[in-house]
Amino acid sequence: MRFLFVLLFFISMSVFAQDQLKPAQRDPYLQNPVKNAPPPQLNPQDRVHIINADKIIKDPAKYDGNRYLTGNVKIEHQGSILTADEVVIYDEENFVKAIGNTRLQNTDGSVITAGEMEYDANTQKGVARKNVVLTDPKQTIKTDILYYDRLSSQAYFNTGGTITDGQNVMYTKSATYFLNTKMIDFVGNVKIDSPDYIIEGPNIKQDQNTKIAEFFGPTTITSRKNPRNRVYTERGTYRMNTKEAFLKKNSKIFYNDKILTGDDMYYNQITGFGTATGNVTLDDPNEKRYIKGGYGEIFEVKDSAMMTKNPYAVKIFEKDSLYFASEKIISFQRPDSLDATVKKSFLRAFRKARFYKSNAQGRADSIAFNETDGVMHMYREPYLWSGEKQVTGDKVEAYFNTKTENIDSLKVLGNAFAISKVDSLSLKDEFNQVKGKLMTVYYQNNNIKEAKVIGNAQSIVYVDDENQQTKKPERVGITLSTCGIIGALFEEKALQIISCSVGANSDTYPMSMIEPAKRKFPDFNWNTKDRIRKWQDILVDSPNYEEIKYQADTSLYDQVQENIEKEKAKEEAKKPKRTRR
Hints:
Residues 1-17 form the signal peptide. The chain is 7% helix and 55% strand.
């Protein structure tokens, strides 16, 4: 009797142990929020329903005694259909594991296929593993492990995967797909590969409805046609259909071997048009030149650019750079008329144009510079200074030696006028002057050395001679010359007329005999207020220096005039006085 009782006890304990099934071994993503919590009280519609199965088996030796389905298995939960070769149902937990050719058809139209799946019907979260593919009308996601949440309509993977939308293929370490909004959040070595471009960055969000991508972190858009043409940004938006980029942080546009940067930028990859505002720089390494300003535009097809809002350009030379500034600067390249395979570079400065080089500075209404050939054109009221010499005219052309990077010569067309301070260290009002219709000026050792004037040539030259006793220069007077052609040689403190031909007429007047008004031509225009003396002066319309006040030395002339007046007075005194009767 006692033996029978013990046997019944062990039998009952064995049946009890079989009824107490072990909980499912879940993926960490599917763990219950509260450990050891009792199973929730579920309504029938909340449970997983079996639609079809060839066999329903419950084997204590398999799956911890939980029943499992095999053969054409199809189960349903709140409208979603799961099919598989085999499905284990954990009834108490409302949890299933699907194995082999698993397929989940969701109510939102998306489909997930995988080698195996886990699904918690209480939280409506699942995990798919092994050759996972998620498809919906917008794209296809492929990865090794996919986590999905039906309640929040999200799918997530972090083991690497690809997403294709018919046109583009996206590679990423991890991504979250929001099925309702069709937004994808890519993270970790993201690459978007399309027929026209490649996008690479650490964090990209893309709206599959609008095809708009947002960039967070260093991102590059590279053209497939020309990989050197690319866009870089650390924060921006890209419209993939229209290929328009809106760049907000540390952005650069690389095109035609040039680099455009700015605080806020726009670029259209189809038209090749781009804009930039705030701290804009256009760098051209091939030309060794950059342009800065507050606003810029580029035209990739025309290979041209424009800069406004206090723009300035720097042409970098090895020893002595060349600076430009104006209200608007344009740069462009054009094929050489003699050789279409060679491109020439040009720079245009419009309205209140200025330039600076250590041995030459200038200003005009506009300046055109052929960077390749080294030819500069100055239009409308040009001024060019070199040392204490000034050249003006209707138009000035400056010719640079592209090898030595220095000015070789100038051509002044129309109303040419060259002025040279007699003594740059003194404030005496003494200036050598030569003028005419046309003038060619030659440089030597970076200084104006010689000038040739053609047509109505005139000159006013201060003449010195060496005192035989003191061996020092002594003022002789001023020579006034008019000729058809004048050749002039500029020396340190003198202007020497070396030739005067075609209707030559030259007279030298002592200082006591030449009146002050004849010491300057009527259109004398020595400009010290607007003169550019350092490169920073080009950054403003005019440095507006205080006008230099020169001291006129007319003592000898005044003394002679005083003596003449005295002699006239004496002669008047000798004349008899008439008196009225």
